[in-house]
UniProtKB/TrEMBL annotation:
Catalytic center residues: H21
Record lineage: Bacteria, Bacillati, Actinomycetota, Actinomycetes, Micrococcales
Organism: Georgenia halophila
Keyword set, alphabetical order: Cytoplasm, Hydrolase, RNA-binding, tRNA-binding
Stated role: Catalyzes the release of premature peptidyl moieties from peptidyl-tRNA molecules trapped in stalled 50S ribosomal subunits, and thus maintains levels of free tRNAs and 50S ribosomes.
Protein name: Peptidyl-tRNA hydrolase
């Protein structure tokens, strides 16, 4: 059975680590802590952690999942993701991409399969590299830039002190949503996540 591949989008290096654009990778750090593992470098130009995610009904360990942080910049994420899909023989239906979303307010999360990229260059790169849009996306709201601030500039700034107060809860909820998809399926995960809102 195809393993799950969970990709957290962002830009590489400490300079970008706290940016809104890197919230996908922040979610993966929460998942890695739950899996009690650490990331290692993969030849596909990504940091990966391969293990079991979550717990199935009855207490058995959850399915195999590979967490991946591409080491490329956001707008060229497609090549490392496609290489990982090929290396781990992942069915696109078992690919989950976690990314920032300016069209959602902070603390809001949305799960969907397929659809457009909404101007998100990371998603566009992945869809082009895979030749399909039929993968799961977890959208993590970061809000819109204030006033006339450019959206690209806004997402490349760190979360404000006020935003960081709630950020930890949001990251845990996002990790829960990924875990739900892996252990219970997308429909049940959507029902739980979107009903709570």
């Amino acid at each position: 059975m195809s393993p799950w591949l969970v990709v957290g989008l962002g830009n590489p290096g400490p300079r970008y680590a706290g940016n809104r654009h890197n919230v996908g990778q922040m979610v993966l750090d929460v998942l890695a802590a739950r899996m009690v593992g650490s990331f290692t470098r993969h030849k596909a130009r990504a940091q990966v952690l391969d293990g079991r995610l979550g717990v199935l009904p009855g207490g058995a360990p959850g399915p195999r999942a590979v967490l991946a942080k591409p080491e490329s910049f956001m707008n060229i994420s497609g090549a490392p993701v496609a290489a990982l899909v090929q290396f781990y023989d992942v069915d696109p239906e078992h690919l989950i991409v976690v990314h920032d979303e300016i069209d959602l307010p902070p603390e809001k999360l949305r799960l969907k399969r397929g659809g457009g990229e909404g101007g998100h260059n990371g998603l566009r790169s992945i869809s082009q590299a895979l030749g399909t849009k039929d993968y799961v996306r977890l959208r993590v709201g970061v809000g819109r830039p204030p006033g006339r601030q450019d959206a690209a500039d806004f997402v490349l700034r760190d979360f404000s002190a006020a935003e960081r107060v709630e950020l930890g809860v949001t990251l845990e909820e996002a990790a829960d949503a990924v875990q739900d998809v892996v252990t219970a399926g997308l429909d049940k995960a959507q029902l739980r996540l979107h009903t709570v809102d």
